[in-house]
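Q: Joint fold for the lines below.
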Amino acid sequence: MLTKTLLKEIPADCAAEIKALFGERFSISPPILDHHGRDESPYPLLAPQAVVFANTTEEVAALVKICDRFEVPIIPFGAGTSLEGHILPIHGGIALDLNNMNRVIAIHPEDMMVTVEPAVRRKQLNAELKDTGYFFPVDPGADASIGGMCATRASGTNAVRYGTMRENVLALTVVTASGEIIRTGTQAKKSSAGYDLTRLFVGSEGTLGIITEITLKIYPQPEEIAAAICSFSSVTEAVNAVIEVIQMGIPVARVELVDELAIAAINQHSKLSLKPSPTLFFEFIGSPHSVQEQAQHAQEIVKTHGGQDFEWAIHPEDRARLWHARHNAYFACLQLQAGCRIINTDVCVPISKLAQCIDETRKDLDGSWIKAPILGHVGDGNYHVLLVIDPDKPEDFQEAERLNAAIVQRALRLGGTCTGEHGVGMHKIDFLVDEHGAAAIDVMRTIKQALDPKNILNPGKMIRV
Amino acid sequence: MLTKTLLKEIPADCAAEIKALFGERFSISPPILDHHGRDESPYPLLAPQAVVFANTTEEVAALVKICDRFEVPIIPFGAGTSLEGHILPIHGGIALDLNNMNRVIAIHPEDMMVTVEPAVRRKQLNAELKDTGYFFPVDPGADASIGGMCATRASGTNAVRYGTMRENVLALTVVTASGEIIRTGTQAKKSSAGYDLTRLFVGSEGTLGIITEITLKIYPQPEEIAAAICSFSSVTEAVNAVIEVIQMGIPVARVELVDELAIAAINQHSKLSLKPSPTLFFEFIGSPHSVQEQAQHAQEIVKTHGGQDFEWAIHPEDRARLWHARHNAYFACLQLQAGCRIINTDVCVPISKLAQCIDETRKDLDGSWIKAPILGHVGDGNYHVLLVIDPDKPEDFQEAERLNAAIVQRALRLGGTCTGEHGVGMHKIDFLVDEHGAAAIDVMRTIKQALDPKNILNPGKMIRV
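A: Joint structure:
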C-alpha cells in the first residue's frame, strides 16, 4: 500500500544543524518515531526519520530554513487524528511535532475572537473559554488540534449552524516553505484586501505552509439548549425529514443521522438502550422561546415523515450523554469486530440529493460482506459509511475500497464532493482529480509548485507533483 | 495620477484574430471605448484600446488564448461600479465586456443555491428569485454585477447577518490566464477537497482569472421584517450602542450608521425630513416573535447609550423608503458640492476598536476643509468616510489622500484592514503592503506570477509584479 522507495535518509549535516538548534527536542528514538508514524487512518505504521519538537514560530521557521537547504521533507504533527493518512512520511523526512505550542494566546470576548497556538485541542479551547460566556463551535468529534482542523478544513456536528473552519478562521501565522513568517488576515471581521491567503492555507493539509498561530471566531454560549432524538423505520424517512427541516430554514444547531447498525454499536459501547433503528439526533439553541419554536416546528415535520418517539433531553447531563454517545460512534463501531480497522467514507452532496445518495449506497452495502454502519452530519448533506475491515485480509481492503470508490463516484455524479471534512491526504488524491478535473488540478499544482518549489512540505499528500 | 507610458498598442494580427471571432462584438468605436474607461472612482477617463463583448465562457477562453499569445492585457468589465479604479486599463489592452452574459442559469431552491452568469445584477437576481421564496442577501448598495461582487469580495449592509461574498459563493467557473476553463467547488455545502480555489478567485479583482459563472447561496425570505431608526447626539454614542448590540449576540439583519452630514444630504436627495443627527438604521428579521424579541432587546441597549426617537418602519413601503435613502447616501453626498467627486475610504476594524477609530478620524476630519460625511456598516466594524473633492483642485485630491492615509494607518494600528469591501484596485496597492507585510505580499505575488506569468489579467491592480 505504501511505497518506501522514495524515502531518503536525512543528511548527517542537516541532522547536526537541527540538533544544534533543538538539542534533545530533536529525536531519533524508535518509540518516538513510531508514535509519529501512525494516525487514525487504516494505513500501517510508517515512521519518520526524525522528530523535532518546536516551541515557537521562530523555531519552526529556523527548522524549515534548514530543511529547505537540504531538501528534507517536513510533516507537521498535532493530535494525530487524521483519517486519511495526512501525517505519514511517505517521502521520509522529519515529523514536526507542534504539541509544545499549545497555549491559548489571547481571548478577545469583546471582538468574539481568540488566538491560539496550533496544538491547542478543541476541548482544551472550550474549557479555557468556558467562563467567558463564549465558545468555539467547530467540533469534528475527535479531540483534534486546532492546527490540524485548519489543515483539513474540518467541520463536524455544529457546522450546519456555525459553518466549518473555512468560515471560522479569521487569520493565521504561517511559516512558508522558504522559512519566512507571514501573517494572513487581520482582526477585522471582513476584508477585501488582497488574495485570501487565510482560506488558501485552511485546507491545504500542510502542503503549502506550516500554520503556527490561528485567530478564530468565537460565539456566545447559547442561552438555551435542547436536544432530542427521534427514530424512523428507514434511513430514507429520516433523511427526508432532515431535508425538509433544512429547507424550511429552521436554524438547527445539529442534526445527525445514526443508522440502526451504528445505534447497536453505540448502545453496546456507551451502555445505552436506544431503539435500534435509524435515528436523528437534534440540537436546538437560542432564546427559550426560539428553541421552543424551532423544536415544535421540527417535531411537526419529523412526524409527517414517520418519525416516532421524539424524546427530549433537556437536562445538561442527559444531553451530554447523548452527544457523548454520538461522538464516540466511531470508536463504538471499531468494536463491532475484534481487531478491526475502519475505512471511513466522507462524501457530501447537495441536500436535495442526500436521500437518493444514501439509498443507493445502502443497496451497494447490502450486497457486500463488509459491515458498514452509516453516520451523517445530514443537515449539511455529509455522511460517513464506516467500512469495518480486518486489516489482515487484503480482500477486505479491496472490497472496502471498491465500495468507497462507488460512494465517491455517486456523490460526484450528484454534484457533491469526495470529502466533506476529512481531507484528501493520501487516500483521495485520484478522487480529487475526478472531482475537479485536470485543468483545475493543474491550477492547484501550479500553486503548490510556486509556493513549495522543492516539495518539502508534507510531500505526496493531496496532489501529485 | 495615471501613467500612460506603459500603454502598448494591440498588434494588428491580434486585433484581426479577435475580429474574426467576434465580428461586430469587437469594437474600437471611441464612445464605446470611453464607456469602458471610467468607473465610480475619482480617477479620470482612461479608455481601453478595444472592447470585446463575449457571450459565453468558451468565447472568453478563446479571447484569452489569443491575448495570451500576443501578451495583450484583458480587463473584465461588468457594471462599472468599482470605487477603486479596478476597470481602468492602465497598461492598455482590451476591456472584456461581460454584459451579454446576464442570465440566471439555474435556481435550486431545494438546495438553496442559484447559478448565474457574471453580468447578472444584484437587483435582477432578487427580482428573478422573488417568487421562489428565497433571496440573495449580499448588497453593496450599488446595483453591481455578481461577477464584479465576486472579484472585489463585496459585502454591504446585510453582511453583519449573512456574511460577504467570501461566505456566499459556493462554486465558480473561471477562465485562467492560459485560456483553460476550470470549475472550482461543487454544489455541496462544504468540502475539504483540495485548495480552496473558490476563495482564491473571490477577491482577486480579475488578476488571476476571469469569472464566467457563479453558484451562490440563497436564503429563505424572512417571515417578518422590521426596520427602525434612532438618533444620537454623537457618533460615539451611536457606535457604542452598536458595539453592545453585536456583543450581546442580537442577530440584527442590518445596522448602519449615518452621520449628521450624510443625513442632511439624504434629506435633500430623498426628500425626507430625518433629524439631522448621527443616526442608526436597524433591520430585524425572523419569526414575528423573534423580531419582537430582538427589537426590544436592541431598543433597551440603544436607550442606555442615549439613543432617542426610536422610530419604527413596519410597512414595506416605509421600510423601502428608508433603505432606499440609505442606499442612495453615496449619490446624495455627491450633491453636497456642485461637480464634486468622492474619494471613499473603506477601513474595517475589530468592533471593540470602532468607537475609538471613528472618534479619532472625526477629529482629523474636523481639522480639514474637505467635507466628509461618514457612513458605516458598523455591525461589522466597517465605515466609509466620503471625502468630497473638487476634481479640478489638485489640493483637494492631495488633502483627501492625506486624510485617507491617516484613516488607513489608524485602522491598521487597531488591528484592522485597509479595505472592508471595496477592494484594492489601483488605490490601495501600497496600503496592502502596509497591511500584510512584505513577506505575505511576496506570497501573493508568487501566486499571481505562477497563475498569470505574462501578467495579462487586469495588470497593475492589487499587486505590483
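Q: Anything notable?
A: Chain A has four domains: 12-100, 104-220, 224-332, 337-433. The first helix of chain A runs from residue 12 to 22.
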